[in-house]
Specification:
- The longest helix is centred in the middle third of the chain and has 21 residues.
- The protein has a four-stranded antiparallel β-sheet with strand order 2-3-1-4.
- It is elongated and about 60 Å long.
- The two termini are about 30 Å apart.
- By secondary structure, it is an alpha+beta fold.
- It is built from three helices and four strands.
């Protein structure tokens, strides 16, 4: 089994001459999953609505800054605690730092999980900016 490349070493993951299904180059993204907290505080409908506006406003700001590539809620998930997903153009530690400042996370409604996501170069595209 080939080891995953590290940041800055994505060209050496595989030799396309060995197997055309193994990419020679990878694009790297960071994926953050927003998960319903088991200890989520009870909130009124009005408070939840206001918090949702803050959450969406925060994410819109990250998108405008160019660090958040794509985000949105999940549906038909196998684990109903999984509420949403965000794809960042940052290393994992930086993306986690920003995700921890999300108003939903600060309020204790959501917790975050993250990972680096490696895709074959040019395969995953998100809108006009890629």
């Amino acid at each position: 089994m080939r080891a995953l490349p590290t940041i800055g070493d994505v060209e050496t993951a595989a030799d396309p001459n060995d197997d055309p299904l193994i990419p020679a180059r990878f694009d790297e993204h960071t994926v953050i999953f927003l998960v319903r907290s088991p200890d989520a505080p009870e909130m009124s409908e009005d408070a939840l609505d206001a918090l949702q506006v803050e959450h969406l406003t925060y994410l819109r700001g990250l998108k405008r800054r160019g660090v958040l590539i794509a985000n949105g809620p999940l549906a038909e998930q196998t684990d109903v605690r999984m509420r949403g997903m965000s794809v960042y153009r940052l290393p994992l530690d930086e993306a986690l730092g920003l995700a921890r400042q999300d108003p939903m996370v600060l309020a204790g409604r959501l917790v975050i999980e993250g990972a680096r996501w490696m895709t074959a170069e040019g395969v995953a595209r998100f809108g006009p900016e890629g």
